[in-house]
Amino acid sequence: MSISTALAVPEPGFAALMAARPHLAMDAMAGLLFEGVPLAAIADALGTPVWVYGAATMRGRYHALRAALDAAGLDAGVHYAVKANDHLAVLALFGAEGAGADVVSEGELRRAHAAGIPARRIVFSGVGKTLGEIRLALAEGIAQINIESAEELAMVSAVATAMDRRAPVALRVNPDVDAGTHPKIATGRAGDKFGIPYGDAAALYAHAATLPGIAPVGLAVHIGSQITAMAPYRAAYGRIAELVRSLRAQGLVVARVDCGGGLGIGYRDEPAAAPAAFAGAIRATLGDLGLRLMIEPGRWLVGPAGVLLASVVLVKQARPRRFVVLDAAMNDLLRPALYGAWHGIVPLSAVDAAAPASPAEIAGPVCESGDIFATDRALPPLEAGARVAILDAGAYGAVMSSTYNARPLAPQALVDGDTGAWRTIRVRQSHAELWAGELMPGRVA
Ligand SMILES: Cc1ncc(COP(=O)(O)O)c(C=O)c1O
Questions:
Q1: Residues with Cβ within 6 A of ligand 1?
Q2: Which of 105, 141, 145, 189 has minimal CB crowding within 10 Å?
Q3: For residue 372, what is the domain's CATH number?
Q4: Is there a catalytic annotation at residue 367?
Q5: Does residue 169 sit within a domain?
Q6: Cα(304)–Cα(391) distance, integer angstroms
Q7: pLDDT of 95-130, one tens digit each?
Q8: What is the pTM of this model?
Q9: Any bridge partners for residue 421, and if so which?
Q10: Does residue 413 sit in helix, strand or coil?
Q11: Is residue 198 part of a domain?
Q12: Together in a domain, 291 and 390
């Protein structure tokens, strides 16, 4: 759903937000519970702002996706897109469930290793891999490098040849399909920086097969993120299936297709992408080609499984507006400022949640007019000290944080509804850590 369409319908209130999120519940005494754990206890212990993730929710979502792929009879591997949330505990959780990883940098590759995901389950994507990154990936025995251009193919071939290796590569094709998502997260239209133009892909694949350092294993496609309709997927995969058939008709081996990620979640009231529908779209287009398939979901697995807790610093009346200023800001959660993204916001206290709502601007303290989490949002009075949870912040949340305005990175905690326990998984950054590594040379001579 486009942002303009979304704005035309009334916003979901507290009851609707809670009803759509079974991992959350409101207890009259303990307040907002995440997988049964009181969030107030975590805010008390670690302070705010603080990120909280739900292990049982992540595991449940992984298994729902896995089950849908299996039920559709697909031979498919799930490669979690590390960029969505690269915390080691999150990577280790998915790795333990059997997932591989999709990485886009040396840092992500090293994180996946550190979390115990072996290189043979890791795919390397991204438009600008350096020679050093390619060398590292090959030395580690990476499962697949997704090639984004003829220039990158030549780089990988040169590195692999020098290392006396053959690099397993898939060509990432740009299918020229509009995913119908926010322009800043659409990646599959002609003219986007991603992928090899559709019309060039067949010739490049044939060329790849002649290169000494290259073992072309298949094709890859990723058309964008936060995609809730299946038609763009069907269109893109249909084009990839056509390409597979035509390459095979030329005698070329195409064993794998990496179907990318992009499955959308219901931030507001959009219908989230359903695993069964996604698996059905893959089956209908690529299912009868005897391919080893891969998918690279990020947001869908972790987005709903995270919240950002914040406290109200003060309420500024600037009639007719009521600015509720939080201690969390755009440096913590960038999505609203970057994409105009909508996130549900609910009080932690049951008393606050039950109080009559009126319109408020929910702002952060950073010195940017764009540091606004919500505009004209129906919320209860929320006095200074009240606490709120910003919902669906598990994906593209903490990973996109910065220390702008010299604000230390917020701590992170993991609750586990399967055990009823919670743990700190990252401590709050100290102010001294903000400038560790900076030097004061005085007069530079
Ligand atoms: C190549 C690739 N794969 C997977 C993903 C994950 O996307 P999402 O988190 O929307 O599933 C991305 C992110 O845009 C990507 O660029």
A1: 81, 83-84, 102, 125, 222, 225, 260-263, 296-300, 395
A2: 141
A3: 2.40.37.10
A4: yes
A5: yes
A6: 7
A7: 999 999 999 999 999 999 999 999 999 999 999 999
A8: 0.96
A9: 416
A10: strand
A11: yes
A12: no
